[in-house]
Write a structure and sequence with these properties.
Oligomer: single chain
Order of helices and strands: HH
Number of strands: 0
Structural class: mainly alpha
Shape: elongated
Radius of gyration: 16 Å
Largest sheet: none
Helix content: 55-70%
Strand content: under 5%
Length: 77
């Protein structure tokens, strides 16, 4: 049985979106870096919570950039 690894899943999603963007010629800003300061005690407001929020925002921003590029390509043809 595989245990879900949210950090690995986030990194996979980021890599997939970066590959799509590279293929489409869309420049994206850098994704959020993995946290390095987690103490592992399950703190309220853990650095991982902030990381996953930032990844969600990055993915939304990247999706919008890809949509805008697709719309521009569609209107020029």
């Amino acid at each position: 049985m595989n245990t879900p690894n949210p950090a690995a899943e986030a990194q996979t999603r980021i890599a997939q979106v970066q590959a799509r963007a590279a293929h489409a010629g869309v420049a994206l800003r850098q994704p959020p870096p993995l946290p390095t300061t987690c103490c592992g005690r399950g703190c309220n407001g853990c650095v991982w919570e902030g990381y996953f929020d930032a990844v969600t925002w990055w993915l939304e921003d990247a999706a919008e950039a890809l949509r805008a590029q697709a719309a521009a390509a569609g209107s020029s043809g």
